[in-house]
Design a protein that fits this description.
With 74 residues, this protein is an alpha+beta fold. 23% of the residues lie in helices and 23% in strands. The relative contact order is 0.10. The mean pLDDT is 79.
Length: 74
C-alpha cells in the first residue's frame, strides 16, 4: 500500500463530525412550532362536514368521514 493511500485512510478515520449551531438548540414542546399556523378542525368546519379550499385556481374539498377522519379531494 502506498503511503498516500495510507495517509488518506488515516485522515478519514481521524475526522469527527463538526459541531453545528443546531447541536445546542433545545426543541420546542410538541405543537409549539411558531413557523406553522395551527387551526382547530372545529374552527375550520364550524359544524359542517365539508369545506371548500381554493388553491391556484383549483377547488379542493376537505371533508370529515363517518370514521371521523379527514379526506382531501380535488
Amino acid at each position: 500500500m502506498t503511503s498516500a493511500i495510507q495517509n488518506r485512510r488515516r485522515d478519514h478515520r481521524a475526522k469527527k463530525p463538526a459541531e453545528t449551531a443546531t447541536d445546542s438548540v433545545v426543541p420546542l414542546p410538541e405543537g409549539m412550532n411558531p413557523a406553522v399556523p395551527e387551526w382547530s378542525s372545529l374552527d375550520l368546519f364550524k359544524g359542517a362536514k365539508e369545506l371548500l379550499i381554493r388553491h391556484n385556481g383549483a377547488d379542493y374539498r376537505l371533508r370529515i368521514t363517518a370514521a371521523n377522519k379527514l379526506i382531501l379531494t380535488k
